[in-house]
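Re: the request from the purification team.
They wanted to know what the chain is likely to look like in 3D before they choose a buffer screen. I agreed to run a prediction and write the result into the notebook, where they can find it.
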Amino acid sequence: MATHKRGIIREGVEAYKIRAIEYQRLRALVEADMEVARRLHAHDFQLIDPTGELLSKEEYLGAVASGEIDYLVWEPDPIEVRLSGEMALIRYASRLELVVGDQRLPPEHYWHTDSYERCNGRWQAVWSQATQIR
């Protein structure tokens, strides 16, 4: 919430929508619900993973669909939202458990920074970056 000279201003409805979409996107990735995941990622989506590798939408979602990336747990902390017109930035920490290839990684905490754009009235993730918290 923001403060104002005359008191407290409630956070805008759009910020709540962005959070709800991000929670839906995370659920789709954990459940490998590719129909929902494809709808929530823009056609030109890019992920920079914790190793610094750049993945396109097709590379990333293809790896999730095939099980190459298998999210077992994705527990986000509260999501911070910054909005400006047709763009939104979100940031949050989370605890992830996942399997990459045939290797189960130990549970770790990560920072996530994602950008969303509103296209044809619908918010979609465009860029995503994850950084391991040490």
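For the purification team: The two ends are 29 Å apart (CA to CA).
Please add any questions underneath this entry.
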